[in-house]
């Protein structure tokens, strides 16, 4: 049973393993699965047995909208629906989730439901320890929803869900050690290592945006100063552009014009749009943010040594205008440069659906999704 160009064979004993609960459960070295030590199972073999159990619904809970989709085992979104996020009322959000599942479930036979939301989840995938957008604090969300939906439910961090989707179906396909970075108002992150989501000892790994790159620098919402996301995010891009415009710099003319003459209306999206249209000042601002992005990636490479970084999120609409400078800064700051292999840096392939697709797929393959 060849798996790749090297004709790697999957032993018969490995092929008989029940794959439920393998890739997403965060198994530790030394654990066993079907009588085998888990780390001895080739990662390609783990992937080849995933996602064989029908349709699942993935739900991505954002600050302004709740998006849901029916996802098949190949990662294809069959049908979608969405609602506005009902403020920060946790019970109201749960009701919206129920409505979406009921709506999509009328025309599809659904095996399980995956929920992706910003925040910290316990390692069991049942309790939301903290969510920045909603009033969830030690909330037993899986138990609540399973009692309402009468279906298996998995709850996961939205960045973990997106990383899983990119590993399974997108830009990280075929990568054994993948780090995903999401650039939006801040910086999110997640890792898929050897066929499993790596969440750390306490389930809160991936807060890459809060590595300190400038001690004593810009104040971050987390309370610290100089966090990476204060220099390499959409918010950082907008802040630098507004500062340029407020100083009445003549190079900010196009940005001010696009913002209706008010510097306060300039956002990261404004800068990206003007940069894509050819405005030189906007391109310089993106280049600066790209430099900080590459610097942070070099730090992560020194610590984690991934094979590929996948960069997603709204700021990636800038494409190579952002990622090109990031690659240059990464190569310049990589520890051991010239004497070691360097990770690839790729743009995400699945766009805003990644969280939805990943949450659905995780619910289908994870042993944590149990009724």
Automatic annotation (TrEMBL):
Sequence segments annotated as region (Disordered): 1-36
EC number: 2.7.1.2
UniProt cross-references to InterPro entries, sorted A to Z: ATPase_NBD, ROK, ROK_cs, ROK_glcA
GO MF annotation: an example: ATP binding
A GO term from the CC aspect: cytoplasm
GO biological process, one term: glycolytic process
Keyword DNA-binding appears in the UniProt entry: no
Protein name as catalogued: Glucokinase
